[in-house]
Amino acid sequence: xxxxxxxxxxxxxxxxxxxxxxxxxxxxxxxxxxxxxxxxxxxxxxxxxxxxxxxxxxxxxxxxxxxxxxxxxxxxxxxxxxxxxxxxxxxxxxxxxxxxxxxxxxxxxxxxxxxxxxxxxxxxxxxxxxxxxxxxxxxxxxxxxxxxxxxxxxxxxxxxxxxxxxxxxxxxxxxxxxx
Length: 179
Prior knowledge:
alpha/beta; two-stranded parallel sheet; Arc Repressor Mutant, subunit A; 5 helices; Double Stranded RNA Binding Domain
């Protein structure tokens, strides 16, 4: 059984989903793939201890503190490749960015392959079911483009600005631009 609740944030209304043990979803209203990883309907509930912990985490995050993803019990639903990418995302420090290509290199090393497609990594990042906590917004294009955020690039920029990222080398992609 899955439970859901909402949280009003500076990034918009967030929907949180848990299995009563761990957070399995956190989506920004209108986000691409919203709820896609949850295999069944959810029951509304504000009572789950996981939600209380997640809301405290979000309060701290939006207050400019630096909570770590490891502070919450997380159980994102996805295959082995996506799980590997999401584990790497959790290691990106608050206020810093990395590129799709850098994550592709890390995945290639983990899987003992010569190379890994940045586009494949981008697909896994785009399907991240626990936005903000698993910080996919901290991944940018190699040229500094704010491309590829399922919650919208303006929201991505807002989250990076909140974290104090130097935005001077980052830019909004041209419409239709790829990674």
